């Protein structure tokens, strides 16, 4: 214990520059020599500022943790693929590296994460995942760009990013972390599986793991729900199976009428959606298992819900199938079926599936994995996170608490928001670092686990207004004891 405390104290000691950081920062432009890499720009940000961004996803970003050194670089991952990335290197550095993930099929640098991580005194690196923009089109006929997306970008980001951190501060990071949600969650598991030495600790939210089936599920759901073909010019969906958005409020109210009180509190939150045996009166689409919409209480106005129930074939699945699986620009999705899903499995572009339970190498390096999933997530069902948990624990034939913990968050939507206290330091939207301590913050909880051996028993969510709720780790359950929710075996 004494040893652990000393270790924590050593890691937490703040880095102090021997020379003026601004001079050191600006010199990086000409002094950094890294494999396959060109330094595109270097800037020293002196006060909290709004800065312009790289790539086409957004035009500006906040820098609250200034002063920091901002390094923009490109690394060729092969002769036909490259990664654009930024490192944000705060003057006040606690000796920790943080790699960031991406979302959907994008190519967007996570500027919120860069700001968030640097404000907690990490040296942070985020990349464009090997292509620019939100569409999957850059993947078309570019197998190496697909490889970047599927597994390589996150590794190269870590390898080159750590070298930049090392060069700037003149000392390597003591510990390395990863933070990502959705596709970023998939990238985090992929890193632990394929590059177990890259990170000492990994936080993933709502991970898009078992990717091929997730894409297949979105496609099948669209099909069941009478979604129009992506290329249709119709403005009104006339399929008899289509549920117009207005009706989702009615459906949600009925789901809540039946299931809200199962947890003992009528608050709009269904704590354990799997307990909700919703009786829909015959509309078969409500009964499809694990569809993430039913039994959660989500409505069409929940963020990301319209991507699933809005009436169009899922653009994620459409882009993935056309550009990564079939290698075509046009495809008619009218008769999307399990045969399409089987093809996803067969091609498995870049090994994107990310559904293996063999985390033994990561475990044996004493890596720690903290994952969370909102139970009102309409885009990726929280059941997917239970599935991967069970897969890992079966594969390794061991209880996972020693190195892998899953927190299910009642009421939370996809990665953030929803109902109730869902701010956990997940870094997705500005302000999620509601309370800066490891009891309330998944990233800081992971730091304590990695550096101090203090495994998080619970995570406390905040709503920013003083209301909190204790969130439980699977397979424990969140149970109302008459006063508040507590965790029970
Ligand atoms: C990266 O690739 C581009 C295009 O092939 C090439 O022009 C550039 O010199 C390469 N950069 C490095 C550092 O290898
Ligand atoms: C640099 O490029 C070569 C050739 O494409 C590749 O084999 C090597 O892995 C790359 N190194 C890094 C750090 O990406
Ligand atoms: C939390 O906030 C305090 C006070 O602002 C600060 O001193 C401390 O460094 C912060 N902790 C972390 C891990 O950033
Ligand atoms: C469906 O697609 C049409 C045509 O691209 C678009 O105008 C509409 O906003 C989309 N609806 C949703 C819910 O995304
Ligand atoms: C599309 O191209 C990839 C290689 O990038 C290949 O593996 C796959 O089989 C191709 N798809 C079809 C349907 O031919
Ligand atoms: C979809 O299936 C129907 C019924 O079998 C068939 O008439 C139609 O041509 C198919 N459409 C496409 C685009 O394959
Ligand atoms: C806190 O309460 C205020 C006033 O009721 C409200 O405007 C704000 O949105 C709330 N913030 C959160 C995070 O719920
Ligand atoms: C509920 O749990 C809390 C925290 O453990 C405890 O303080 C409280 O007494 C419990 N309430 C009841 C009615 O058991
Ligand atoms: Ca409830």
From TrEMBL:
<dbReference type="GO" id="GO:0046872">
    <property type="term" value="F:metal ion binding"/>
</dbReference>
<dbReference type="GO" id="GO:0030600">
    <property type="term" value="F:feruloyl esterase activity"/>
</dbReference>
<feature type="signal peptide">
    <location>
        <begin position="1"/>
        <end position="18"/>
    </location>
</feature>
<keyword id="KW-0732">Signal</keyword>
<keyword id="KW-0624">Polysaccharide degradation</keyword>
<keyword id="KW-1015">Disulfide bond</keyword>
<dbReference type="InterPro" id="IPR029058">
    <property type="entry name" value="AB_hydrolase_fold"/>
</dbReference>
<comment type="similarity">
    <text>Belongs to the tannase family.</text>
</comment>
<keyword id="KW-0119">Carbohydrate metabolism</keyword>
<keyword id="KW-0106">Calcium</keyword>
<keyword id="KW-0378">Hydrolase</keyword>
<protein>
    <recommendedName>
        <fullName>Carboxylic ester hydrolase</fullName>
        <ecNumber>3.1.1.-</ecNumber>
    </recommendedName>
</protein>
<keyword id="KW-0858">Xylan degradation</keyword>
<keyword id="KW-0719">Serine esterase</keyword>
<dbReference type="InterPro" id="IPR011118">
    <property type="entry name" value="Tannase/feruloyl_esterase"/>
</dbReference>
<keyword id="KW-0479">Metal-binding</keyword>
<dbReference type="GO" id="GO:0045493">
    <property type="term" value="P:xylan catabolic process"/>
</dbReference>
<dbReference type="Pfam" id="PF07519">
    <property type="entry name" value="Tannase"/>
</dbReference>
